[in-house]
Amino acid sequence: MRTPICIKLGCELPIFAFSHCRDVVVEVTKAGGFGVLGASTFSPEQLETELCWIDEHVAGRPYGVDVIIPTRYDKQSEASTEHLEALIPDEHRAFMDKLLDDAGVPPLPADERERIHAAIVNGRGNMTPDGARRLLRVALNHPQVKLVVSALGSPPPDVVVELRERNVMVGAMCGKGEHAARHRAAGVQLIVAQGTEAGGHTGDIATMVLVPQVVEACGDEVAVLAAGGIAKGSQIAAALALGAQGVWCGSVWLGTRESELDPFEKEVLFETRTEDAVRRRARTGKPVRMIKSLLSEAWEQPGAPAYLPTPLQGILYNEAHARVVRAKRKDLYSFPVGQVVGMINEESSVRDVMYRLQLEYLDAIERLRQLSPAESED
Amino acid sequence: MRTPICIKLGCELPIFAFSHCRDVVVEVTKAGGFGVLGASTFSPEQLETELCWIDEHVAGRPYGVDVIIPTRYDKQSEASTEHLEALIPDEHRAFMDKLLDDAGVPPLPADERERIHAAIVNGRGNMTPDGARRLLRVALNHPQVKLVVSALGSPPPDVVVELRERNVMVGAMCGKGEHAARHRAAGVQLIVAQGTEAGGHTGDIATMVLVPQVVEACGDEVAVLAAGGIAKGSQIAAALALGAQGVWCGSVWLGTRESELDPFEKEVLFETRTEDAVRRRARTGKPVRMIKSLLSEAWEQPGAPAYLPTPLQGILYNEAHARVVRAKRKDLYSFPVGQVVGMINEESSVRDVMYRLQLEYLDAIERLRQLSPAESED
């Protein structure tokens, strides 16, 4: 399944792995795929540590980094977290607290609470124009970083110029055909067409419809990866049939022994059915596909407070989530995950997943070949 | 792309066309595909007329019929339409009337109103256990009808026995992996796995995820068709890669010159973007993917009355829809359609669509073949 994007980037397989976990990035990359580290939750110092570790373990292979690079300066995003916390209405805070208190979930110890807040400050700091550029500067000091993906909109012109000058490929996420044309005009070289079935922030359009539309909008110069609904080799074959040059997977790595989820979280993951990966606004204020839980559903009930705008809803949710994980409460636990979650039912290793994907891909290709035996002479 | 289901049913191509329009059924069937007439809106006498016409035009080729066969007797479904109309609250009626009156849409003339109501009575009569069996009896008098698809749940045991005895294949629609096992246990031989991107009543799960799950639940005995997101040959290739034996398409025929839509309706269809095929409850009380319009959105606004249960919402909506079509009001017009609507931009003929689908399919297969040149020796 080696496609032109593999040749351009120098990997064997067009299987791109998005992960916040360096172990997953390394194992996918070593197995011939292309690991992409989600960097926005790290401080510049932490990112430096992670990338050094990855460099040491991938034996010279290329890999990528995913960052959120805002195009415009957003005054609110520069506000301090303390200031933002003051903007969360008492009604919302009381609703979340009552929900967890009534369910018998203990509050966080003070040090844990501080750690969460530090993470929020980091994460938010990275989403300012300056913060994102600080992360980029770290990434560009690592010559094996051959791809930078902008997780939100087209990257700004100065970033595109710098990346292209340094021979780092510029990528961007896309949930609508018309966004593809905008990315292309901004100089993006790789577009990840992400269908509604994907985990995390997603749009409404399904991968089956979105990918051909993005491919058509991109022409030959821009490569397209399919994201959303990819956890089996037959789905990779389907994505390539739709015109994608590869796939971008996230959920499938969560169930591996290398993943960042702890055993309690993995148990929930393995038990979650496809129909329980729902799009809800509880986590960030914008629709995120995530595991359905009492916490995600409480905000949907009549009488619940209206969702807060980003980033306020996320600040409120993050602390509640940490309480739930600490208390190991399956009924309240949620995590961003795609509809493929119903296909992830036991722990595996990244290497095993990579091997399985290839075998299943070959099976699918062979099945198609047998359906059209004559056309090979065309 | 000839798959085992083609051999079983006696068609050339595994392209199944769902349509309420006999011309589409005939043209698809003549072009080597398999037309399936949506029968539930016809009276038994009308259905007899339609099927005789189809028989005369398909030159002995097989085709199918789609009916709604309730498993249980439902007292409300037997109630007269007049009785049901009385159950529609004044608030709801006033809301719909005000919306159209304010928009300057004239009320229906009395005869038009009567025709609409007769159609509702027909349609509803066909959805009772007896009504559905009356339609089936008509269909079974036409030996070229080789497939009967139940549009709602598994068909009841007596229907399955009768169809199988007469060598008519039994099909059913499915939106969740777990429904597939139920269908299989009920004796269903063909399952249409319909993803959320499809038009009409749909679930939440995307075709890319649903099809492999249904295929896995079905084993080798039951054939699976992919529905939702199929309007190009590359999407057929993707569906077959996922393990489907064929595709079931609806929206793509709406834009043909043979379709039942009038020129005004087709204009709206060609202008509708993928993101404007939204899932709303305005039409039937259950989520239907349909064209976004002022009429579909009005019911979503704060202060709008709550949706009525099926069939009341549909009775209310049908008359409003007829008013809008008669007034040719694009801003208020809606119709069930899938996300592929963004790919349907000009009038074509059924034959041209069938030809295009095959060419695009071969292109996709050839692209995959070139990516895996070596594996043919396996």
From TrEMBL, chains A, B:
Q: Where is the signal peptide?
A: none
CDD domains membership: NPD_like
What SUPFAM superfamilies does UniProt report for this protein, alphabetically?
Inosine monophosphate dehydrogenase (IMPDH)
- Keyword ATP-binding in annotation: no
Alphabetized InterPro entries for the sequence: Aldolase_TIM, NMO
- Keyword terms: Dioxygenase, Flavoprotein, FMN, Oxidoreductase
Whether Oxidoreductase counts among this entry's keywords is yes
In Swiss-Prot or TrEMBL terms, this protein is called: NAD(P)H-dependent flavin oxidoreductase YrpB (Nitropropane dioxygenase family)
Which terms in the Gene Ontology molecular function aspect does this entry carry?
dioxygenase activity; nitronate monooxygenase activity
Q: Origin organism of this chain?
A: Glaciimonas immobilis
Q: Which Pfam families match?
A: NMO
